[in-house]
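User: Can you fold this complex?
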Amino acid sequence: MNLTPDTDDLELLSATTDWCQGHMPLAQARQRPAGLRQDMRDMGWFDMTLPSAQGGLALSHATEVLVFAEFGRFLAPVSAMAAATANRWRAASSAQPRSAPPSLAILANDQWRVFDPAGEAEVLVANADTVQLARLPSDLVACEGLDPSTRFAMMAPSDNAPMLAPAAHRHLQLLSAAYAAGCAEAARDMAADYAKVREQFDRPIGWFQSVKHMCADMVVRAAVARSQLYYAACAMDAGDTDAAFHIAAAKRLADHAALDNGRANIQIHGGIGMTDAAAPHLCLKRAHLLAFITPCHRVDLLGAPE
Amino acid sequence: MNNQFSAEERRFREECADWLHANAPRERRPLHAADALDFDKAWQRRLFDAGWAGINWPTEYGGRGLPIVQQVIWLEEYAAAKAPWIGANFVGINHGGPTLIMNASVAQKTYHLPRILKGEAIWCQGFSEPGAGSDLAGIRTKARVEGDELVVNGSKIWTSFAHVADWQELVVRTEEGSRRHKGLSWVICDMHAPGVTVRPIQKMSGQIEFCEVFYDNVRLPLENVVGGLGNGWSVAMSTLSFERGTGFIADQVKQAQEIEELIAQARRTGHMRNDVIAEQLAHLRAEVAALRAMTYRNISEVVRTGQPGAEASVIRLFGAELGQRLERMAILLAGDAILDFRYGDATFVHDYLRGFASTIAGGSSQIQRDIIGERILGLPKSR
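Assistant: Here's the predicted assembly.
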């Protein structure tokens, strides 16, 4: 039993952080360079848990969530989690198209809401308990929505899109929990950094317990989310019978942390936190978006009603 | 990272479970500390005789000296077997004894440690005062040196088990005019010494466990000072390094049992059809799982670095508040049956009322939030 990253993990994590800082700083979340996801793919991040026989890195989910929580912290494109899930679970016979990593879609009434659709060949569709892999029409036009760092388009569901293995849905839920845990941490750190430098009544506002305690609660929510994330990833690696519960719990707590920390971060920033120019709203809006990707339903935590 | 225990650890878990199921008292521990004293002593003696006393104490002092992961396993199995709390032995085993191990003279250790382990000597803590609660450095109880004695005057409060204790870890101001953390001394106080008066205080749960203690020219041998005159603060704090984040594991296992019982109860009573209650139960179940994950993470940190992470205060804060949310859920599900509660009942209503202590005692949740803000986030110190 070991729920802390080992030396190899920490090295990978530190390299990931450096890369993210260089290639996708949070402040530029709404203008990502066109080739960003291809660059991420070339780093091998979408093949981390793929068996080596299929050309993957054969790493554990426990290592993978460290990297994806980091993506969450930088408000990386959400479709990265779709790419990793699709690569891991697509039929071994169907070769991965090299055009571009897949997009991610969720159900929107009788349509699919496709995130990051620009120029993609495939889309991973997250249903309530399953995921399927479909082809994207080439004429999709992406527009902006609530989350300024994620463009989306609507499309009609395509028939005959193959379902991936049942584990694929859990994998996607685990990665979206990682994103949300990272998002909660980004808001926490932004709030704490601001509370150290913003002065009122001749002192940093972080001196005041009313502000300090809000920040402490952000720490707690983020720690709860990250701890359960680690446990859930390990449970999936071990094939534990209760892995689905632990992943659902991780998702529930991470979404909760991302939303509440997103809101608290804006409050701590005060007026500047209300503006479009400042970054806090990016975390909040991303948290809202993540909450719709493989949400945790009550039945996932409590089992079917009797 | 992995969440699996080794084969050796799984064998150890079986060993713990077997012994506990065969030996843990089945009868309920009496509610009031004075009524529970014989029970507590007998249980501690049984633990000692089987080699389970002081699982985290070094073997050279008669403890079991278990590695931290095995301590976790023991504590988990202890709670799973519904073994009783060690009650009046709590302070000696978890605080007084470890402080002596870290700081005391050979003579002090030789005399006191075996008695604590065997449940023969009951200890209490003498830190908090009417004017020194969260602000512990505001201690005003004084002791002046007269020849080879200390003469103590003042009072302590919220002292659990003082009315049944033989000894006390007493922190007093031994330097006239000293302020804050300076000029304090940690001294072994004989609770049977002339001039010590103990007045039990009944809690709002009905339980009689903590007390007020008054010192009227109490004479203690100077040799009872541990760690040297004037070093009381660092002696008192040294025990923190003995505490490796295992302090609340039994509570967590109880919380895990409690949420499962609440879910079963809500299904039985039809409360589960209420969406608000069902949603809260689902969330609580996730939080209980996360608390265990946090603890495992902290324990792993101890294994890796030898030190618990700063996140120990996070566990403390989250666990205490989660426990209260569970107790409130039990109250909500019970409905007006809670109005039947009378002092002396040892039911979930009692636990709910007693549970208010968990965010107050031993560092309130407000103090924990200060610590998290200042030590983890690096926000400016308010005090």
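The domain at 244-376 of chain B is CATH 1.20.140.10 (Butyryl-CoA Dehydrogenase, subunit A; domain 3). The mean pLDDT of chain B is 95.
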